[in-house]
Amino acid sequence: MKNLELVQCVHQESIPVNLGVPCCITVDSDTGCVYVGTDTGLVALDGETHSILCSVSLRETAYLCEDDTSHLVGIQFLQDQDSVCAATSSGDVILWNILTQELECVGTVASGLTCMAWSPNQDLVLLTTGEEKMVMMTSDFNPIFETNIHQEEFGEAEFITAGWGKKETQFHGSEGKQAAFQKTETVSPALPWDDMLPRVSWCRDDFVVSSVSPVDGARRLRMWNRECVLQATSETVSMLGQALCWKPSGSLIASTQRKPHRHEVVFFEKNGLRHGEFVLPFGKDEMKVLELLWNSDSTVLAVWLEELCSGEKQADTPSTYVQLWTVSNYHWYLKQSLSFGKDLADKPTAVVWDAEHANRLHVVCHGGRYVMYEWSWVINRTDGWTAQDKSYVAVIDGDKVLLTPFRQLVIPPPMSAYSLQLSTAVNQVLFSPAPGVNDLAAVLTDGTVVFYTLNSQQPELPPDTSVCMNAAGGTGFQPTVCMHVQQRRVRLECFMSEEKYRCPQTLHHFVWLADAELLTVGWDVTSSTSVLYHLGTQEEQATLIHKMPVGGRVYQLCRSCDGQTVAIELTDGTVLRYHMDRIAGCPVLEPWRSQTGQPVRFPVLCSQLGLCTMAGQETVLGLTDRFRFFVNGDEISSNCTSFAVHDDHLLLTTHAHTCTCLPLHMGSKDLSSATDEKVRRVERGSRLVTVVPQDTKVILQMPRGNLETVHPRTLVLGQVQKLIGSHEFLEAFLIMRKHRVNLNLLCDLNPQMFLTCVPELVTQLKDVNYLNLFLTELREEDVTETMYSEYLSSAGENSWDLHSHSKMDQVCDAVKKTLEDLDCEKYLLGILTCHIKKAQPELEVCLQRIQEIWDNPPQSDEGVSAEEALNYVLLLVDVNELFNVALGTYDLRLVLMVAEKSQKDPKEYLPFLKKLQNMEENLQRYTIDLHLKRYHKAAQHLSKCGPDRFADLLALVKEHKLYKSVLQLYTTESKEYKDISEAYGEYLLKKGHVEEAGLVLSRCEEWEKALQAFEQCCNWRQALCVASRLQYSTQQTAQLALRMAGFLRNNSRQGEAAVLLEQYVQDEEGAIITLLEGNQWEEALRVINKYNRTDIIDTNFKPALLEASQRQLAFLQDNKALFTRHKDRLAVVRKEKAKACTEILGEDHADQDVDLYSDTSSTTRTHSSHSSAKYSGTSKTSGRTAKSRRKAERKKLSLREGSPYEDHALLVALKDIVDAVDKSKDDVHNLLKMLVLFGFDCEAGVLQACLEGTLSLMDSCTAEIWQTGGGSPQTQMTLGPHSTVNSILASMNAGPQPVDPVVAVPPPAKLKDSKWKLSILEGT
Fold first, then answer.
1. What is the model's pLDDT at position 365?
2. 940 partner at 20 to 30 Å CA-CA among 651, 821, 843, 1084?
3. Are strands 3-13 and 22-27 parallel, antiparallel or unpaired?
4. What would the mean pLDDT of 613-636 be, rounded to a whole number?
5. How high is the mean pLDDT of the chain?
6. Do 649 and 613 touch, CB atoms closer than 8 A?
7. CB proximity list for 900: less than 8 A, separation 6 or greater
8. Mind spelling out the 3-state secondary structure of 593-640?
9. Which of left, alpha, beta for 299 (phi over 0: left; psi -120 to 50: alpha)?
10. Rounded to an integer, what distance in angstroms lies between the CA atom of residue 955 and that of residue 961?
């Protein structure tokens, strides 16, 4: 779908007449200098100005003689030697040193030379002599081989024939048996205009020679390798032409063949077999092919033609043409045609492609003019922004323009929807700016511009005979698209007839501006710069409106979609803006400025330009031949292969075989960071052809030429967002359904707007099936925040509040209300869908509506029958679930209706339904609820069946634990209530809720069981209350109290046990002893004095007091010693780990390249491997049981010396010691008071001093033990994006983090609290 567009046409009258007539040319690709060989000598032209740098005469040095026919047969610039090698027909091989301007004859062939051809890398040169021999020489002109051109053998690649059977007995296909007896046709000799000279063409290390056989006079091709060994000979081809060129890619060898009715360019494989051809667009006796030339990247084949003059025209100068052909999808296109006219001075005498720039062609003419053409690949497509743009793409094919509107249909090349037949070859196609974006103009080789407008009427064959219908209809079929009709023809003869415009395509880069005006580029010979011509096209002859010199060479032009602005790129990368000043009425040419106000300049020349509006400002886009993509001079991508502008996105294809969609609301500085977003994979080598505006269609072309249409998700969602925003719900729905976009987007983009526009949505969709499809896809989530969050820029600004209200309920209620208001009968299925799709499906309501329709069928034709409605519901709901819902309504007729429409076997449900039909109502409902496992409802209905069914009810309650709900069905005085409560109490006893069981049993007056429960849970107060209800005697009560006192003493509840002994057992001495066991000194003293048992003070109280004092003192001394030992050990452990960490860090800093090692590097150190081995075992606990995991955690806190977790275990132990000592302050305080009371001041002072010293020691060591952050900074684990190998290794070797993070926190600062002390003991 690409065309060749001329980007440069530089011409100069470079060679004066006194230097002779040019005959050959060569180019220095590095400097751009052009070297021309004439019939008198050699001339060097400057690469920029194309003026003469130097020249040398070969006649003065006698290499060329004026009196004989000697001439140059070829010249070649040699890069390594900085010289020009020339070969003459007289046999001399000459070197012209460019630096010293000296000539040197490096060799002479007595028989003369007919051809000189250098290999592509210039290490070999092949010479053909007048004796029909080939001489292979090195670049130093040392002969290697010499052999005859004409060889009798085929070559090393000769085909092998097995020799099976005879020709007469073989099958000959459609030719029939007579083919076996046909004689071989004789080969026709060479063409009459053939110069009979050999031709040589190189490809890598092989070359092909075309020569005329001295036997039959026919041309043959012979393929040789660099050792001059014949590889193959071409098959016999009659009337083979002299032109020869081997494709640089090596696949084909091009030549020409004249047939009786046409002239063809034919191709040969390396083995000599024919491989395709294409027909040249002229008659058999109209033209002769002088040369064929492949460009350096094998994409363009140049055909150099000359007119055959016969009869009256024989005395005229023949016209000369150069045609450029390309191939795609096995079809050859004529893309450019250069007509040099009949003037002898304009006749090309040498044509050559540039070796560095693939699409640059150098031409030198008979009159001394040098012309340089350069083309670039472009896609001629419309650039509108509205839906009126049909997305036309125009393909040039000789005198035809192939057109396809991709908005309406996609037709792969070489076919097209229709074509425009022009009078001569087309060189450029341009489309109109808005509003007539579909109109086009074709620039012809004769200097005529033909304008076409789109016939917007109904598709029909237009009266214009130049329009040919192809794949879009015709030949009896109805056309499917509107076609163009010719509007007018405008001639440019006033410009082309001038002397300086005699060169073909002097005017190029035609751009269609607003108001039917054209902008084109010409060349000013005097200043060697480009000139802009602003032309009017309203009349038959173009008129010059404005002429403006540029001050440089124009390389590319790009017009804005409205035709008001043109971006102009110069060969130095500068970008200019051309626009009309409406006030002054004259054009303005100024630098193009970026968003920051800086002039835009591409660092590399861009062969493709584009314009778009980015972040509110018009922006210029550029793509180089090396796949670098620029936006306002900023490089965005380095592997971009093509680009196109959509409504809100910039599309790029890359060498990674992806298509990227970049948002245009971003600035050029931000695009480089967004190139990896919104990417989709495409086929390898895909290129963008066009994107359809206001649509989602993107057309890609594959390398082989076929087309592929894709719909990037970004464009689809962007288009859907626009349509929903403009309330075009039907179009949005159809796009979403076609491209499988989640239909929740209809309501999630703008929930508030959607809820207010539900009537409009229903009206537009009309079809209830569309509504049902939308409703069935509803889900309880906001897809703008989940599924499509990365595609939608406005996601989350106005979203559903899913926490407080159900989205599905809101949507279903709104749609259901609208449908009910419009027509309940017509939209019944939609209403049913709304009920089903709620967060809690209202299946019962659906069945009720179906039941109503069953009883009262709809009267209108659009209504839905109950059978249809039920069948529809069965599509959305599982039949078993719907059957159960129908069963739950207790309407057996409805159940039967659902069952009949399901796939259930009647044997499954009919007996069950008959059984239900014969039951009493409550029993029937109980049976149904029990079947549906609705046990609570089943219990309710069973409770209404009377006392006879209570046993079943009690069994149901016990089986399904329905105690609470069933108790509410009976009064507290009823027998049923008591029976259920008793069962409930027994259930609680089994579950271990003993106290609660006692309460329930007390409520139902099961006193014995309640007493056992309270006694079991040691609730002595409730137990005594129950005992009184059982009318226990004093002795029984005392025995109960004595038993429970023993339980309480065993549970360290001595105070409560003492109450029972004192008040119910009447054992005051036992009560006092129990209080002393619990260290409740003051309460024991109270009971002693109450009962006047002072004797116990000496016998029991004081000894117990002193014993408690000694025990408390020993506890404090032990904990103090243990605290000191753990603290000292912790300091040692930390010191050892800090030392190890310092050593590791020293080793790591010594290794300067440690940060270069990857995580999987094989370069490891001893300490890192040891650490990994030491801690690798901790990960194995993931597969253990809970018990084994707890055991493993306990092992981690082992105080064993050398343990990897020893420091953390010490911290845990120290914290436990501090907590235990801190808790003992209250006990010590009470003990001190009693000691002082009974005169044990010495013991009390020792105890107080011991506790005070222990607390002081712990308080002074808290900061040392619990350091800030739980450890030294060197030992903290450092992870994250800023971590290094050093920090991670240091933290690993310092030890893992604490198992319990609480360990790292110091105890609360309560150690300094002195309220527990007695002041009277200070100083004792």
1. 93
2. 843
3. unpaired
4. 91
5. 85
6. no
7. none
8. ECCCCCECECCCCCCEEEEEEECCEEEEEEECCCCCEEECCEEEECCE
9. alpha
10. 10
Q: Which two tokens stand for residue 645?
A: 């502008």
The phi, psi pair for 599, rounded to 5°, reads -60, 140
Own/partner contacts of 937-943, CB < 8 Å, gap of 24 or more, are: 939/965, 939/966, 939/969, 940/969, 943/969, 943/970
pLDDT at 509: 92
- Identity of the residue numbered 1149: H
Q: Could you read off the pLDDT of 246-257 as tens digits, one per residue? A: 999 988 999 999
pLDDT at residue 425, rounded to an integer: 95
Could you tell me if 708 and 683 are in contact, meaning their C-beta atoms sit under 8 angstroms apart?
Answer: yes
Place of tokens 């029937």: 924
What single DSSP character describes residue 1059?
Answer: H
- CA–CA separation, 963 and 982 (whole Å): 10
**Confidence tier at 1151 by pLDDT (50, 70, 90):** very low
Q: Return the bridge partners of 599, or none.
A: 593
Specify the pLDDT at position 1275: 40
CB 219 within 8 A of CB 212: yes
**CA-to-CA distance for 1060 and 247, rounded, in angstroms?**
117
CB 600 within 8 A of CB 577: no
Tokens of 5: 């567009």
- DSSP letters for 999-1017: HHHHHTT-HHHHHHHHHHT
Helix (H) or strand (E) segment spanning residue 522: strand 517-524
- What is the Cα 1262 distance to its own chain's centre? 57
The amino acid present at 176, given as its one-letter code, is G
Measured in degrees and rounded to the nearest 5, phi and psi for residue 738 equal: -65, -40
DSSP string, 186-216: PPP---TT-----EEEEETTEEEEEEE-TTT
How many whole angstroms separate alpha carbon 437 and alpha carbon 439? 6
Residue 171, SS3 per DSSP: coil
- Residue whose token pair is 């005959």: 23
Q: Token pair of 1189, please?
A: 């995991």
Q: Report, as an integer, the average pLDDT of 550-560.
A: 92
Q: Taking each helix axis as running N to C, give the angle between helix 1034-1050 and helix 1054-1063, from 0 to 180 degrees, rounded to the nearest 10.
A: 160
Q: Could you tell me the two tokens for 1155? A: 């940060």
Integer Cα distance of 363 and 369 in angstroms: 8
Report yes or no: 202 and 118 within 8 Å, Cβ to Cβ. yes
Nearest CA to 1145 among 1030, 1278, 1257?
1278
pLDDT at 1177: 40
b/e string for 1222-1245 if b means 16 or more Cβ within 10 A?
bebbeebeebbebbbebebeebbb
State how far the Cα of 999 lies from the Cα of 285, in Å rounded to an integer: 123
Q: In one letter, which amino acid is 225?
A: N
| DSSP helix/strand/coil, 128 | strand
839 within 8 A of 808, measured Cβ to Cβ: yes
Question: Helix or strand or coil: residue 416?
Answer: coil
Helix (H) or strand (E) holding 264: strand 263-268
